[in-house]
Prior knowledge:
Elements: H1 7-14, E1 43-44, H2 52-57, E2 82-83, E3 86-90, E4 93-100, E5 111-115, H3 129-132, E6 137-141, H4 154-157, H5 167-180, E7 190-195, H6 198-208, E8 213-219, H7 235-248, H8 250-259, H9 262-272, H10 281-288, H11 296-303, H12 312-315, E9 323-328, H13 336-343, E10 349-355, H14 362-365, H15 367-382
Parallel strand pairs: 5-6, 5-7, 7-8, 8-9, 9-10
Antiparallel strand pairs: 1-2, 3-4, 4-6
Helix pairs in contact: 5-6, 7-8, 9-10
Amino acid sequence: xxxxxxxxxxxxxxxxxxxxxxxxxxxxxxxxxxxxxxxxxxxxxxxxxxxxxxxxxxxxxxxxxxxxxxxxxxxxxxxxxxxxxxxxxxxxxxxxxxxxxxxxxxxxxxxxxxxxxxxxxxxxxxxxxxxxxxxxxxxxxxxxxxxxxxxxxxxxxxxxxxxxxxxxxxxxxxxxxxxxxxxxxxxxxxxxxxxxxxxxxxxxxxxxxxxxxxxxxxxxxxxxxxxxxxxxxxxxxxxxxxxxxxxxxxxxxxxxxxxxxxxxxxxxxxxxxxxxxxxxxxxxxxxxxxxxxxxxxxxxxxxxxxxxxxxxxxxxxxxxxxxxxxxxxxxxxxxxxxxxxxxxxxxxxxxxxxxxxxxxxxxxxxxxxxxxxxxxxxxxxxxxx
Length: 385
């Protein structure tokens, strides 16, 4: 089937020809949430299990006066824990991020910014941030409308799609984050490490200001098969009609409510991950919880209506630095052979590396493979090795 936004795009396009593809919708539960208007506060509702304490210790502090966030949860999932993070004000919106400064390298160490995909958030990098922070100033950031970053409601503030939740918006957000929070500048550049749809956002940031980017690593980047230029002519009106129905009627909300459950998310993740044992309660909580907060469905429905904007194969030739692509051979949503056909041979592609036995989210499924590759790429490029 056609793929684009990960599971949600696969669902939308496959709906044209296959009813069972609708079962891919649960990962929409990782859509955005609303965040209270204050900064630097720890909140409740995410990051459970044995990995949580190490992840939270990187912050060095917790402030609990933000109060609880109510999350509907299944009895099989662990008790509601703390949500680590700090907040940064961007264009009037609170953006949640996790910073992991290195214990010894100091402020002059390389800057690495980790960008999640559709349905993800900072916690999708919980197995990577601690290791990256050993040699770099490492950050993970929730894109506007995702995780625990603010979410302006599109139907009210932005009457039509492709005005707010776009790669241009997210690219500008990432660029400003790199400069304002991470301290990137032409003498101290950033390395973007991005997964899935986040790859397009990271590339967009690198194109907007090439002077502060020294390298981009893409993990199973989105092929954006719902883009209007990639649809067959006869498919376009049908796709547009389905997007309109889902976005502007109660059908999309009803369907979202029926499938956004721990069991549903677990099932979908077990499709995305080649190793089903990698789908833990920690992961299910991390993906599901933000999508159960008020307003999540609005952003989900808006983004699945987004069939314009840049394509990754258009952005890569425009960057001014090397691009490495790592691709799980078992990715069911972004087929590696289509990725190879799309990207190999483009200017700036330094490496296209298959990852045997790995699915759509290699950073989480196979951190033992990805973490050394991030380290080698960053230290070689920065001259810190």
